[in-house]
Design a protein that fits this description.
The protein has helices at residues 2-6, 14-22, 30-66, 77-111, 129-140, 145-171, 173-177, 184-224, 229-240, 243-264, 301-312, 321-330, 342-357; strands spanning 270-273, 278-283, 293-299, 317-319. It has 358 residues and is mostly helical. It folds into two domains: 14-235, no CATH class; 266-357, name from scop (3-Layer(aba) Sandwich), CATH 3.40.1690. A hairpin with a 4-residue loop joins strand 1 and strand 2 (278-283).
Length: 358
């Protein structure tokens, strides 16, 4: 296993990343999500606190002004409780709904669009005694690497976040001491200001820690999905096909193309040669193409085969080094000749057609 891990030097391919994502394996930070959740709750409470307190005071006012213990009928409990439930729902539901929506948006921004069935499928191997024993060993092992890392991270988080909160209280001790004997509304304003600043500093600290943890989790995730050179080769074979098979298919295709090309030589009007290195078979049919076009071409052995087929099928062979070489290099099979070759090819075809008439 150690050697296998050491051999994982290649970055994960897009296909490997997509497979991991389909399984629900992505880089994510629980610390960041916790920090975002707490920050959202605090912010929304600050935004909706006026409305929530108004609803609470309304419930208290209704209780003290409308309820008469002597006139309470126990058979109509629902009718008595329902107005208070409605008021409390008006106070709490907007807060809960807004927090829920913002948390869903935050999760979506971090992990994107993902729905992994593997994460919700029941895994019966997790309830096996062997799995329980191994999990218990990891739980009771204080020197387990992941546990040590998480323990150190937890200590650092508590120290840093606590220090940020304590720094606010320490810097405003004089204001707290001055509250002794102060009026209630002044005390509430000062304490509210201190708590707001303290929560702000602590939320910023938690968010910074969360972003750093996300970077660390991303690094660990990228490291965990690295691939060996052999895995990259195997994946390439799976996606692109085995190179040996592809070469065989390409060879078969070339062979079929060659057979089709050779079958077109007997229908050619003329074969222009170099005389031995190149051979180009031309045909001129106005109903097919507006100008003469190449039906076959080849060099060396292929040129020999084209000449041989032409001789066996009484196709005229004309030696013209410049025309043969130029057509072989510039014109593909079934393409018409270039316009600057019209005159030279026309002279060759005219000579061939005149010879046939004689």
């Amino acid at each position: 296993m150690a050697n296998d891990g050491a051999d994982r030097t290649e970055e994960a391919t897009p296909r490997r990343r997509q497979k991991e994502r389909d399984k629900g394996n992505i880089a994510k930070s629980k610390d960041l999500m916790s920090a975002i959740t707490i920050t959202i709750c605090i912010v929304m409470f600050a935004v909706l606190s006026g409305w929530m307190m108004n609803r609470f005071f309304l419930a208290l006012h209704l209780a003290f002004t409308s309820l008469n213990p002597k006139s309470i009928n126990t058979s109509e409990v629902m009718g008595l409780v329902l107005p208070y439930v409605k008021i409390m729902a008006e106070a709490v539901v907007p807060f809960m709904v807004s927090v829920f929506i913002l948390i869903i948006v935050a999760i979506r921004l971090q992990i994107g669009k993902i729905f992994a069935l593997d994460k919700i499928k029941p895994k019966f191997e997790n309830i096996s005694p062997k799995k329980w024993v191994s999990g218990l060993k990891r739980l009771l092992n204080p020197f387990e690497p992941n546990k040590l890392v998480e323990f150190v991270k937890s200590i650092l988080k508590v120290v840093i976040v606590g220090a940020c909160g304590y720094s606010v209280i320490h810097s405003r001790l004089d204001e707290l001491y001055a509250l002794l004997g102060a009026e209630a509304h002044i005390a509430f304003n000062v304490i509210g200001s201190i708590l707001s600043q303290m929560f702000l500093n602590m939320c910023i600290a938690m968010l910074v820690i969360g972003f750093l943890d996300l970077k660390f989790q991303t690094y660990m995730f990228e490291k965990s999905i690295k691939m060996t050179k052999q895995e990259v080769k195997d994946e390439y074979k799976d996606t692109e096909g085995d190179p040996k098979i592809k070469s065989k298919i390409r060879a078969m295709g070339q062979q079929l193309l060659m057979q089709k090309m050779m079958s077109s030589v007997p229908t050619a009007d003329v074969v222009v040669t170099n005389p031995t290195h190149f051979a180009v078979a031309l045909k001129y049919d106005r109903t097919v193409k507006p100008a003469p076009y190449v039906v076959a071409k080849g060099a060396d052995f292929m040129a020999f085969k084209i000449r041989e087929i032409a001789l066996n099928n009484n196709v005229p062979i004309v030696e013209n080094r410049i025309v043969a070489r130029t057509l072989y290099q510039l014109v593909e099979i079934n393409d018409i000749i270039p316009s600057d070759m019209f005159q030279a090819v026309a002279e060759i075809l005219a000579h061939v057609f005149n010879s046939r008439r004689k």
